[in-house]
Amino acid sequence: MVKPTDAGTVYDVCTATARPSAVRTALQGLKETVVKAAAAYEVAAAQQAQHTLNHLKHQPDGESAAKAAKAAKGSINEELKKTYVNRMVGGAGRTVYDKLRGSCYGLCALCGHGAADTLDHQLPKDSFPLLSVVPVNLVPACFRCNHQKKERAGADARG
């Protein structure tokens, strides 16, 4: 059974089925980088300072490479984001997704009363692809709150 809070184990589960094998190998080669990003996120979150993680933005490709590759849909950042959609929400990591979604008694962590039918990326996966399947970056959210927030991340500790 996968512990829903262990970033390395969750990442392994979500990348193990990536295809083609070259993509799987590239993703699995980033495990240590993802685990380090998760640890940095945990430290920042404990201090309510996720806004200080700008060094992780658009990594590992970097912002200019990510913009160019996004059009071509061929970057490792795009593959990291697909790992969430294809392998966590709709694949081998679904058990973890469901456990995280139910972790606040099935309620939205953003509004506190809506049914948590999605997970929200506190630091959005478009800007922080290394954190796409990192459990501490994912919180249960109702569809309404998740989609109102969109790809926004707080600019400071106030959100």
Main β-sheet, spatial strand arrangement:
1-2
Count of DSSP E strands? Answer: 2
Mean pLDDT over the residues:
89
- The number of helical segments is 7
Q: What's the oligomerization state?
A: single chain
Rg calculated over all Cα atoms: 15 Å
Report the β-strand fraction as a percent range.
Answer: 5-15%
Distance between the termini: 34 Å
Principal-axis shape equals globular
Describe this structure in words.
The chain has 159 residues and is mainly α. It has one domain. It is built from seven helices and two strands. A two-stranded antiparallel ribbon has the order 1-2. The chain is globular, with a radius of gyration of 15 Å. Mean pLDDT is 89; it is low at 155-159.
Could you list some keywords that capture this structure?
159 residues; mainly alpha; two-stranded antiparallel sheet; 7 helices; 5% strand; disordered C terminus
List the helices and strands and how they pair.
Layout lengths: L6 H9 L5 H8 L2 H16 L16 H10 L3 H14 L4 H8 L16 E4 L16 E4 L1 H7 L10
Antiparallel strand pairs: 1-2
Helix pairs in contact: 1-3
